[in-house]
Amino acid sequence: MMRSIISSFITLLVFCVGTPTAIAQEAPTVSEWVEKMAECTAKPLSYDFSLNFNMAAVGTSVKASGSIVMLDQRHMHMTTKSSVESAMMPNGAQKAEQVMIMDGETMWTVTSMDYPVNQGEKISSVSRMTIELMEKMGQGAAGMGGGLPGAGSSADMATQIRTMFDKFYTDCELSVKNGTVKISGNISDEFLENVPMGGIELDRFRAELDQKTAFPNRLVMGNEKEDIIEMSMSNAKFLDPKKIDKKLFEYVPDPGIHVMDMDAMLNSMVPAGADSSESDF
Questions:
Q1: How far is Cα 258 from Cα 158, in angstroms, rounded to an integer?
Q2: How high is the pLDDT of residue 178?
Q3: How many C-beta neighbours within 10 Å does residue 270 have?
């Protein structure tokens, strides 16, 4: 569960920088701001991110930071450093470094993490999943990622954003002050029914956008008592696709490296006689 939360937290991270907001006679509504965010995701961009996931109720906290370069929905390069602290880990925090590369056909994930028992030792792994399967999974779980980078097993961030506000974010309130657009409201019970959170209570959200670009600088999810998930994005740059180094989206495993085939593993979970193309995984 923890690994999927981190790696894949990675669907609001992948928001893009939008174009400056035009002067209008009427101020944009919540739905118009949401659409501006969604439209941003079609544009090439890079940005840095940081994540704090405070699960005090279960004695665990996660911190992560990294950067993303995104050409389009099938070409992305993301680097992440994370640290997990838990009352169940007496040897201290478990640290990990991860590189995720989407080359147009395959998503490669290279991970190096602390060995959970002997400090100083590392566990390294390489996995691959076809983007076709990743997109298929995303179609079956649109919006399930909470608008967080990678969390919905889909690179279609526009769908993630729209679905969250259409289905799971309710009673939204809007305010604009000092160049920041704030959208806040409730998280529906249906969201928690679809996204296992280990009993963690999430019922409120808050998003902060740049008024000129609609780029999301901050996303918070929590409850009336405390903020539990906080994602911050910074140094956003709108990129010229012709000037992006295409080598960022290439990966070839070293000879002899064992590569975990996620397609084979997930397909093996389909019940006998079932059509894998219809499986929701």
A1: 34
A2: 95
A3: 15
At 77 the pLDDT is 95
**Region class of 42: left (phi > 0), else alpha (psi between -120 and 50), else beta:** alpha
DSSP state of 225: S
Integer angstrom CA distances of residue 34 from 4, 29, 106 = 26, 9, 30
* pLDDT < 50 regions, the chain: 1-25, 141-154, 276-281
- β-pairing, 122-130 vs 259-261, is parallel
**CA nearest neighbour of 138 among 119, 116, 166, 159:** 159
**Domains annotated on the chain, with CATH:** 2-263 (2.50.20.10)
The full DSSP string for 241-277 is: GGGS-GGGG---PPTT--EEEHHHHHHTTSPTT--GG
DSSP bridge partners of 129: 107
DSSP annotation string for 74-143: TEEEEEEEEEEEETT-TT--EEEEEEEEEESSEEEEEEEEE-SSSTT-EEEEEEEEEHHHHHHHHHHTTT
Which candidate, 13, 124, 2, 94, places its Cα nearest to that of 53?
2
| Closest C-alpha among 6, 16, 117 to residue 73 | 16
pTM: 0.78
**Predicted pLDDT of residue 147:** 45
Please answer whether residues 234 and 219 qualify as being in contact, where contact means their C-beta atoms are separated by less than 8 angstroms. Answer: no
